[in-house]
Amino acid sequence: MAVNLEDKSKMVVTEGSYAVAHAAKVCRPNVISAYPITPQTHIVENLSKFMADGEIPNCEYINVESEFSAISALVGASAAGARTYSATTSQGLELMHEVLFNAAGMRLPIVMTIANRAVSAPINIWNDQQDSISQRDTGWLQLYAEDLQESADMLPQLYKIAEDKEVLLPGMACMDGFILSHVYEPLVLLEQDLTDEFLPAYEPEYVLDPKNPMSFGAFAAPDTYEEFRYLQEQAMQNALPKIEAVAKEFGEIFGRFHGGLIDEYRTEDAEVIIMAMGSILGTIKDVVDEYRARGEKIGVLKVRAFRPFPKEQIRKAIKDAAVVAVLDKNISIGTNEGALFTETKACMYNARCDIPIIGYTIGHGGRDIRLETIAKIIEEAKEVASSGINTESQFVEVREELL
Amino acid sequence: MSKPTPKTYLSPGHRGCAGCCDALAAKFMLMGAGPDCIVVNPTGCLEVMTTPFPESAWEVPWIHSLFENGPAVASGIEAALKALGRKGNTKVIGVGGDGSTMDIGIRSLSGAFERGHDLTYVCIDNEAYMNTGVQRSSGTPFDASTTTSPAGKVSFGNPRPKKNMPAIMAAHGAPYVATTSIGYPRDMIRKVKKATETEGPTYIHAHAPCPTGWGFDGSKTIEMAKLAVQTCLWPMYEMEKGEITQVKKVKNPMPVEEYLKAQKRFKHLFTMEGGDEEIKKIQALADWNIEYFGLQ
User: Fold this and answer.
1) Which of chain A's ends, N or C, has fewer CB atoms near its CB within 10 Å?
2) What is the ipTM, given to two decimal places?
3) Chain B contact for A133, CB < 8 A?
């Protein structure tokens, strides 16, 4: 993200979790429901302090007894007409799994921050993206933030997309745990007046109200169930242009643009394109800058929206490259591939475009991703461009002495 | 002059079995609660039979989410009404079966009561998982034969007595906890009304005989419910702030055989060797109720 010069005077040095909590606050939620789990805790602690200081008007904070109830309470609250917020990660998100499908199926525009973390076993509190990637089929919008500022800026954008009458789907704002949640950086805290201008109050068409009784969550037999699923998919497709439009509108009001569905960095003539999601993009961009300084044509494709999956935009962005390397902080065990890699390959297969695409599954459980590692991947990608694929997908740094 | 019957808000035409206990319980519940309520109904017979899309039998706002999260959904609705300034006298009511309430949803229910939300939760206890075909729950009584606790050559059926759910809810500091039975509609209507008019989390445990699951004719539902009370196997009482404040007396308790022999789920006790000893154990449970609750 290019720093907006006007922003410099407004910047404060603060923690990612505080920026996100502050962003949630200025979105004027009516019900917040959350259960503590590392590394999400600082977000909910900050929101609790805002509540204790009376800084979030017309809002109730529910200290639930589990993540299962955190998201369930928001199902009820959202159906009653409230704008709702929660934050979780890892085991907490996995515990929510059943309710995630339910919230999406009931078309409730709940917004959650996910402080991405590895899943047990072995238990591990550090960052990768296995938790939210594992929820990709639940029907939630998923956006992945690259830095602290974007983690915060994503929230009003996501409310606006989720609450759109042509979308009405819940959404996850994913930020890498610790790497973004616990780091202090200069950033701009979202202004209340600008946020109010950008994000109007939530006005649902259908709510639980004794004055106008309606039934929510009826059961659907085989003669009607399929149409509910079809409409969810249509809503996801409707979200594609909305994500782009909302990011653009955000940029016009706040002066910051983090990409729409995707964001391209130095890809204009790139022979090698590295694709990834989240904070790893910063590391990749640093390495790519070094290559560019040496005159090598390397570019970066940031995938910001994983659900809906921006097939057209990805095809367009990589179709002229000689090789694409996809980096995933997750793995679908049994395929030896990360999800972004698998889905990127899938969307290229019928695109009459036969460029080699290779995958790396990287950074599991918070394993540090170094500049040298990215450079090694770029070198391997260059090799593939000239001599073809040898290994289609692989772990990046396995410590052989531990096996 | 008898009192006028209160209006109910559950329409006829739902898909309940003949003599369905859930339909009766929901009807009485809404008679007590009145129209200013929002009903949360976890998965179960009641949910399935009243809301086959695009139909609904509910004349009050109603929501079904999942099997084990009804009280959490109710918590969220209550919080939303407060935050949006729409709470007024509107009562949020959770209504679920024994499996949803006492087994899979107890975490959610415990959390909602501990947090003190202004809601009423009604457990319609028909003593097994009826929607899935009469499997044992923690509400299934001692020696009842179900599809997952069948009587057999070496088994008299369910080996454990019912979980004491009202005591658990009272231990949460609930201001009002009451047991009732669909065999006594006026009792149930009065208690639901009292529960919904009491601020804070209140709990009603309604005993509800299921003709299909228990094995009796659909015309005998009310009769069976009364027998449970008259044999003292189902004590009816109210608890306020943890203390028992009212008990329905049973002047001349009937022997438990009268209740057991009317149901197929206990038939094995009358045919298997040693069944009479088992019946004595069940009589002992009724005698304990008589003593503990002072039913006589």
Assistant:
1) C
2) 0.97
3) no
